[in-house]
Amino acid sequence: MKKLMEQMALELSGAFEKAGYDPSYGKVTVSSRPDLCEFQCNGAMAGAKKYKKAPFMIAEDVAALLKDTRLFSAVEVVKPGFINLKVKEEFLAEYLEEMDRDEKLSVSAAEQPKTIIIDYGGPNVAKPLHVGHLRSAIIGESLKRISRYMGHHVIGDVHLGDWGLQMGLIITELKYRKPDLVYFDEAYEGAYPEEAPFTISELEEIYPCASAKSKTDEAYKNEALEATHMLQQGRRGYMALWNHIMTVSVADLKKNYEKLNVFFDLWKKESDAQPYIPDMVEKMKRDGFAYEDQGALVVDVKEEKDAKEIPPCMLLKSDGASLYTTTDLATIVDRMKLYQPDAIWYLADKRQELHFTQVFRCARKTGLVKEDTELFFLGFGTMNGKDGKPFKTRDGGVMRLENLIGEINEEMYRKIVENRSVRDTDAGETARQVGLSAIKYGDLSNQATKDYVFDVDRFTSFEGNTGPYILYTIVRIKSILRRYKEEGGVLDTGRFLPAQSGVEKNLMLQLTGFGDTVQSAFEEKAPHRICAYIYEVSNAFNSFYHDTKILTEEDPERKQSFVRILGLTQRVLETSIDLLGFSAPDRM
């Protein structure tokens, strides 16, 4: 179905053309003065210079052709040349009828669906997830869901860090602690144990211990470097330990990501790209792109338009070791070979912008991707505490993600129990759902590229622009619809009637914005657009609720219309929060 804004633009464009003006001036926007009108067209202002005519005169020519339109109840020209518009209540009711029948709620599926790989998450194995991993997971999951809703084939890849020095450090520390393990016996040729010689708790303690030692003990660090090299050369015992580390770590990572309602399609690793590196490097050398500079192998990626210096992209260090750039380039080779994506999106801290600029330019210059393959980096800002500095624990350490989730859930549980709004047996699960909304909405309601303050008190409030407020609105709607059914009412009967009050019409108008909102959120890669939209919808609904006697309405046809509006509002809000990555309970 055509979205409301599209239908209005078609009507205005037709009127401009009939009046003898360029139809492209018929763009319609939401009014910046809702006290005067609902929508406006400023095309006459833009056309004044071209037609050497006062904008007011152009606007009057166009408005004269819109007097008998089926869309507008009022078309008014305001100096110096604005066209103010109000939608007919009858047309609005018809539009919502069609929108309610549409499975996608007016969102137009992509005419040419793309295959999009979204690289988000990016944790290192053998380390617990901390708050620094939160934004990538939350934003990436939402973008994946929005893109799928638009009809694209989307593959979410966690892209684990599993092949660097941290592996050598863990192996070295294990060798010091448990030297008799069979993995360190080079002469051993039998099968290795199926069960890991450590738990996830032990593993998470081993790495920081080894890392700290390597900073003060040069011999220990050299041992770790050698262990890393031997692992990458395929030493049997070390590969078996690496497999244990991966199995234990990935199981724990999946458990913690599941708490965030984040799910990856691929659990690919840096090591998966290693087999591609030798051939990729040789081809870049053979094609004349890669050359030696002070012993290192590099590719120039600077361009004439650069305002600041962009250093060469380094492929191999002077000792022949590969880097993150090498691995990321080889990962692109892997992805192009296996999935032929039309686009690859990367989510990481915005401070990595230079790295991705180098990688993208190198990939294009050397032909790793097709000319029309989109490579996009979304660099997100920092999650800060109230002091404006990166979010920390009370004693100044980096907070584990599961601890943050636990704290939020405890706060929500306390509030829910105090309100006595749900049974004790349901309070825990309700607190989990509401807590997740607080975390995700608190993050996603901010523009991704900007830093923001993670304020637990504000994010867990049931009032204001918060996740719990959105959920409370949905639960209120569910409660009204439950009572309607208990009183013998049947849902999805009757029809949408023309609005009788300003608050009713405002809610109906807000609902029509769903399709445009989802489309702009996809095109701009901006989940905060959806947050801003559902906050407006929630406010519009609550105004309607407080001003309207819904269930005591005496006119049965009007009551059925109210119920249809509630049902559509619930669908719009629940679909939106699903795109953001959380859900609503039945009671709060």
Helix-and-strand structural type: alpha/beta
Assigned CATH class of the domain at 436-580: Mainly Alpha
CATH topology tier name of the domain at 436-580: Isoleucyl-tRNA Synthetase, Domain 1
Shape descriptor reads: globular
Ranges where pLDDT stays below 50 over 5 or more residues in a row are: none
Mean pLDDT: 95
| Number of E-type strands | 13
The CATH homologous superfamily name of the domain at 436-580 equals Isoleucyl-tRNA Synthetase, Domain 1
Rg over CA atoms: 29 Å
Spatial sequence of strands, sheet with the most strands? 1-2-4-3
Total helix count? 21
Q: Please indicate the percent range of residues in DSSP E strands (runs of 2 or more).
A: 5-15%
Helix coverage percent of residues? Answer: 40-55%
CATH architectural grouping of the domain at 436-580: Orthogonal Bundle
- Give the end-to-end Cα distance, rounded to a whole number of Å: 35 Å
* Biggest sheet statistics: 4 strands, antiparallel
What's the arrangement of secondary structure elements?
Elements (H helix, E strand, L loop, with lengths): L3 H15 L10 E2 L8 E3 L1 H9 L3 H10 L7 E7 L3 E6 L1 H13 L13 E5 L14 H16 L3 E5 L7 H13 L22 H17 L1 H15 L3 H24 L10 H4 L3 H10 L3 E4 L2 E4 L13 E4 L7 H16 L3 E7 L3 H13 L8 E7 L2 E2 L16 H19 L4 H21 L7 E2 L2 H4 L7 H20 L15 H11 L1 H10 L4 H20 L8 H25 L8
Parallel strand pairs: 5-6, 5-10, 10-11, 12-13
Antiparallel strand pairs: 1-2, 2-4, 3-4, 7-8, 8-9
Task: Describe the protein.
- By secondary structure, the chain is of the alpha/beta class.
- It is 52% helix and 10% strand.
- Among the domains are: 84 residues, Gyrase A, domain 2 (2-Layer Sandwich), CATH 3.30.1360.70; 95 residues, no CATH class; 145 residues, Isoleucyl-tRNA Synthetase, Domain 1, CATH 1.10.730.10.
- The radius of gyration is 29 Å and the shape is globular.
- The mean pLDDT is 95.
